[in-house]
From TrEMBL:
It comes from the Bacteria. It comes from [Ruminococcus] lactaris CC59_002D. Coiled coil: none annotated. The lineage of its organism: Bacteria, Bacillati, Bacillota, Clostridia, Lachnospirales. Residues 3-141 form the Glycosyltransferase subfamily 4-like N-terminal domain. This is Glycosyl transferase family 1 domain-containing protein.
Amino acid sequence: MKKICYVVTISLTIRAFFIPQLQKLAEIYDVTVICSTDNKLQYQLGDKIKYFPVDIPRGIALKETIKAIRELEAFFRREKFDMVQYSTPNAAFCASIASKSANIKVRNYHLMGYRYLGEKGVARFILKMLEKISCKNSTSIECVCNSNLRLGVQEKIFPVNKATVVWNGSTGGVDLKKFDCNKRERWRTEIRKELDISEKDILFGFAGRITKDKGINELIQAFLELKNESKLLLIGPPEGINTLDTKLWNWAKENESVLIHDAVSDIERYFAAMDVLILPSYREGFGNVIIEAAAMGTTAICTNIQGPSDIIVDSTTGLLCNVKDANSLLECMKTVLKNQYYKELGSNAENYVKNNYDNTILCEKILERKRVLLES
């Protein structure tokens, strides 16, 4: 039985994206997961998947990075994996070096996005260089969407013949059993009752980190200027509040039409309660919340950037606005409200996601891809 190892930095990444495909692979291969220490992860992975904790640092930390590389290399040499796959920038950098040093034949980089795009100056140069090293050490690269593949070639991160997109892309597709649109009306009623939102209210929503780079300033500005009876629901960890425009954030906190909510584990119920998801990010690897919301019958307005532009069929399943442009976002918000256009878009989005991002089909495609790589 051939041996595959998945490496990421933190256990949350495994939980969020990879468990279904790991369980599918474990039907045929010996599968191991490496990530940060997590006492509950093994139970969630099941008996067929092994778990080996390695603390890979986040950010730039030279001493800890060298330690992680050495620990990974020793483990790879001992286990003699046929394939090592890595995702997220730091895990990819460490695991690509370690697996090449350990003479692993197949070194597959699952490239979820480019962290350097959010930086400037020396930080951007260093992060871009690290990305190039990870790609050079890899024997194959799987991008989560075609626009990220094109950007990687354009930016000379990797050559075009080294990279591909599996099926229609995404990190792990959508679990249509969890994001079940048949439960939309029930969940919509429940959540709106919990949040004291009338069924007649139009609800715009956001799910993600509450930070400048997610376009929160533009979202609040556009909502402020919309000047109607709609509501805005912001869901996510407040880890980037210090990056926001203070006046806009204070206005949002004090306005009764804006609801600010912590991150939730049952986001599918909240997507059901929304009429329109808004993701005005400056950059995204893919934008999983778009396809998750769509599976619940909720359309999206997103910035026209790598990732979201691959998912949204503009004016059919959702709308694309200009990045860092509150006026463009405002016009899209007005457009979806005309004649309840958001309902048509939401229905189209649901069908599109079912046909293109069903995680059961994606897992089969990933299994086929692994067979090709292991037999080459």
